[in-house]
Structures
1.
Amino acid sequence: MGASPGSDLHQAYRLLRAGRFSEARAICEASMKASRKNPLLYAILGELAETNGQLDEAARHYQKSIKLDPKQFMTHIALGQTRTYQGRYPEAITSLKRALRLKSNSPHAVAALADTYDKQGRPEEAEALIQPFLDRDE
C-alpha cells in the first residue's frame, strides 16, 4: 500500500476513473481497516457497486459516505442518480435538492434533478428548473 490510506484511496479513485475496477476495489478492501471513517472510501465503493449494476449496494455506500461527511456535493448527486435509476424518485429528489443546497448554481445537479423530474412525469418542473441556465446562454 501507499504512504497513507488517503493517498491509497486517491489512487483507487484514479483507477476507478480509468476503468480499472478490480484494482480500485482491491485498494478499497485493503484500506477498509484504516479508512473506515473516510467518506471517499464509501463514495468509491458506491461507484464500483453502481458500475456492477448493484444499485442497492451503491446507495448504501453513498449514504454511508454522506453520513460521514454531509457536505459531499458529488455524492449527493450520485445517490440521487442511483435512486432515479431505481425509480425511487422522491428519494432521488431529496438527495438532488440537498446537492443544490450545497452548490445552487451547479449545472450538473440541476440537470440531474431535471432528469429525475422528467422521468417522474413532471416535464414542466424539469423545464422550469433548467430554463435559467438556457436563458444565460442566449
2.
Amino acid sequence: MERQKILSVAVVAAGAMLLSACNDNDSGGRLVIGTPDLGDYGDTPAQVSSEMAADLEQMYTDMEEISELIADFAMAATKGVTNPGTYDCPVGGRFTTDYDEANDNNEEQTENWDFENCVVSIEGVGQVKISGGVDYYYLEKTTAEGEVWKFSVTYDGITGEVLETGEVLALNGSDEADELGAEDVASGTSHFIETINFLEMRYGDRYVGITGFKSRQEGTEASSDYTVEGKLAASALAGYINLSTPVPVTVEEGSTCPTKGQINAAGDETAKLLFGETALGTGGAAALWIGDQLAESYNESECEDLTEMLGIETYHEDL
C-alpha cells in the first residue's frame, strides 16, 4: 500500500464530487492549532456547487506540501545520524532521536524525533526553524489472517517558521492506516482503514483541519463495501464539509463501476454522489445531486474513472 493513498480518499472524493467553496479565502478564519474546534472554518459551512473543484484540490495540495516539508526537514536535520541520541542541528538548535526496528519475519519500525529550535536549510524553501515532536510507526507482517500493514504518524505540537518569509508552520494530531490483505486465506476477507481523530495543519495563511474521519473498504475478492465519514475544514474551502455514506458503496468482481452506494458531502447544501442501483432514474451509472437538483450524470466509462479518483479499489488484493 502506497503512503500517498492515505488521506486521499476524503479529499479526492470531495473533489471528484465537484464540491467547491467560495473563492474569497479572506473570511477571517482563525488559524487555531491544538484545539479540535477547527477555528472559524469549523463553524462556517462551505459553499457547495457543481462548477469548481479547484478549492478542494488546493486543500489536498496544502496537506501534501505541509507533510512533505516536515519530512524534508526531518531528513535534513538527521542526515548522517545512525544512532539514537541528542545532536546539533545543521544551522542551529538541537534534536533528539530514538528508533526501534524488529525483523524476526516481520518488518516493524518506530521512530521518534523531538526538535528544539532546530534550524535547517531546505532546497527551494530556505531556512526553517521547528520545535516539537514527530512519531512514525510502520508494521508489515504475515499472520494467520493474512498480510498485515499498519502505518501512523503523530505530530506532537509542531511549531515553527520559514525564516526568510516569516510564514508560520504548525501541526498537531495524528493519521493512521490499517490494511489486511487476505490472499490465500480461507475467509478471503481483507480491509483498508484510515482513521484521523484530529489533525490540524497550518503553513502561512493556509489551514487544514480534520476531525472524526474514517474511511473503510472491506470485503472479499467477489465483493467489498466502502464507507467514509468525517469533517474537513480548510482555508481553501472558507469553511467545512461533512462526509458521510448513507448507503455503503459496493464494488463487485468484474464491475468497472460500483453496483450501489451513496456518498454525501454537506456544506451549505448537500451534494450526493449515487452509484448503480442507487442512481436509478438518472440515466447513468452514477449521478451527482446538489440539493434536489441533478447536477451531473456519469456513464460506465466515466464512472470507472470516478471510482479510481475516489480511491475505491475494485479488486480485494489491492485494498
